[in-house]
Amino acid sequence: MQFHTLKAKTKRKYYRQVGRGGTRGKTSGRGTKGQNARAGHKKRPELRDIIKRIPKLRGRGRSSLKSFQLKAKGAELKALLAKKKSNKNVKI
Prior knowledge:
By secondary structure, the protein is mostly helical.
């Protein structure tokens, strides 16, 4: 085995250098105006926008998974339905 007969296992990857002039300068291979043409262009992750739309629900504490309004069960439900029949302003 001699040094000049060795071959690499993987191909060499050549990355195109962007922003160093070009044939006539001007946009330097970045296209024209826009977010991608600016220095340090970073695209905002889509997941972050989704998270920002969700309300914070501050002060919910340990019972954060419970519903906001307690549901009436059994005897309480019967009493509420009886009140609703007699008076139409009762909310369930």
